[in-house]
Amino acid sequence: MINSSKSVSLTSKTVQTGFSMNKNITLQDIAKALNISASTVSRALTDSYQIGAKTKKLVLDYAKQHHYVPNRMARGLKEGKSRSIGVLVCSIDNNFMAQMLDGIDQHCSERGYQIIIMQSKELYEQEKANVDLLYASGIDGLLISPSYQTVDFSHLTHLQELGVPVVLFDRLSKHIDTHKVAVDNFKGAYDATMHLINNGYKKIAHINWDTELSVATKRFEGYKQALEDSGIKLNNDWIKFIDTTNAETLTLQLDTALQELMDFRPSPKAIFTATDLISTKCLALLHKRGYSVPKDIALIGFSNTDLADVLNPSLSTVHQPSFEIGSLAAQQLLSLINGKDTNSFQTILLPTELQIRASSQPKN
Amino acid sequence: MINSSKSVSLTSKTVQTGFSMNKNITLQDIAKALNISASTVSRALTDSYQIGAKTKKLVLDYAKQHHYVPNRMARGLKEGKSRSIGVLVCSIDNNFMAQMLDGIDQHCSERGYQIIIMQSKELYEQEKANVDLLYASGIDGLLISPSYQTVDFSHLTHLQELGVPVVLFDRLSKHIDTHKVAVDNFKGAYDATMHLINNGYKKIAHINWDTELSVATKRFEGYKQALEDSGIKLNNDWIKFIDTTNAETLTLQLDTALQELMDFRPSPKAIFTATDLISTKCLALLHKRGYSVPKDIALIGFSNTDLADVLNPSLSTVHQPSFEIGSLAAQQLLSLINGKDTNSFQTILLPTELQIRASSQPKN
DNA sequence: AATTATTACTAAAACAATTTAGTTTACTCA
DNA sequence: TGAGTAAACTAAATTGTTTTAGTAATAATT
To answer: What is the pTM of this model?
Structure first.
């Protein structure tokens, strides 16, 4: 089905680089040039009351003219702050994560903070190593969405003890006490399941991620609660937990799970899927197996893909305010860094949005 | 069609943080504790020949025991290097970009370099401001995919003059002389167009991005060349350039363009779309307008979405090796930073991969 | 025994900024 | 006139690391 056409074009030209190795202009350079002391220059640039108006103007003009830009290392060394924050996530290559990172970046860069992004690739050891690296690089704070392997949070509490505030986002844990930002996964799952029930479905399967992370467990609970509130008995044969670590495992396990579900009697008439990857992959596999959605089986799932509308059929989703999660988490962290609210930690759960499309329509 | 259910749950607990404000242990701390000089400690840690074996062991043990980690600011200040590189892109929230960033990150973090990602949001002024910020933060090098507004590259050549190497990726320009990494857009477009022709299509429209960037122009050229090589005359009424800066403008302009194409007589029987967003959005809009793909009109386009298989119909794409673009660009930059190849610049064009699915199948 | 090498260390400078603790100078007021 | 004070500046210390230049002490060579 896939026709691969390969070719390499390598063009190269040989040119003199001619780097002139212009060193940055420093405070002392300005001081020397204007025959004043470096401290005066420093104060002039920070608009200190101790400096006269003419001197200030002189310095400012010279600085602007010579494109002076303070050395971040020197300043960081002196102040013990770097004006940078670490962002540690499982993977950057993921639509939902990219949206959250966008929110983080926007909030931080507007406030003069730089972000250093690192990936744990869902590995606990990698996560620990990255925390060490980030600490060494002098971050003022850490935003983290822990790996799914992470059960021991001592690397993070230790960071807190070292004076580096930590904020959890997307994936929360009760094993660390700090600000936390995510969506209300329980309610999102409850709403999705309820929507299926309201559309006349009673035999509802559930496919979730095989992890202890609250993201997954809360969604499972929301599903169960919706069934219970509607007087529908839970059927454990309709509930599947699968390993989503890598794409192949996911596909294989999901395919098996779907087969088991469809072959089981009585078979479910709808599925609520708990993660982005499971939801879209599920649609693909059902399609491949020749099932018609929602005629043979209805589908709704957590997903933030922009392409939900274009899928076949268009996919009903529980949509998360990803950008807002990121920017709120960043806001919480910066307020910790700047010494506010340090004696009371919040857990903020944002509402999800039910986006109803074709895949969950009633059978009629 | 979209039923929005909103709710906010805010739970909060009040807890003592008890940050103990443990300062990092420094070289001097170790020196004082062991009654030796700081320089000895420094040398012991870097395994210098000038230090005796017992002293080395003493220092190393003490350092490990007390979790010594060198202060990156101090080291950076002294060495004039930060072991961090700047990555300046138009937007992080984009599947293709996230994949490239993944490649960059992997290559860099394996070699002890941190990446600082900033977004220009397609704004030239923002790009310039970010370059200044990155320079101020002491980056050792810059990876950049310029904004579509960027025609003046003096902010980048200036950076080179200051001794900071620059590498272009994905979006190239002839206005700066340096290493460049992207795909062979001409060949990718040529192959896609040729594929349509081989499938019996002769009336082939083209929708491209309204920019001077080589990404767009090369793809246009590839399209034209394929037509020419097949003896098909170019029809300018079938060629549309649209503004993709924001989602709404894109949708609006694309919708108009499609209407014009389909209403024109003779009407095209296939479309080759030049960017990810245009390709997927095009499919969505054709679907919405009730056209059947490929029956009414065939479609193939540049796109790196993982969901191409699940789309309705599955979308034939020109796929780019995004991860490889990123990691190769990073490799080129690090080699510049480490003083290799500074007098000969390369442009590396990776091959694209034609992924043929349902949307470009022959009519019968 | 005197000279040279080698080993194993140290003091102090350098990096670029901020900050502490003053020092001038000019001016006010009794 | 002389004390007091505000304004406008500066020298030097500080931050943590690396590096230069140099010092002892021991070992090897003549």
So the answer is: 0.85
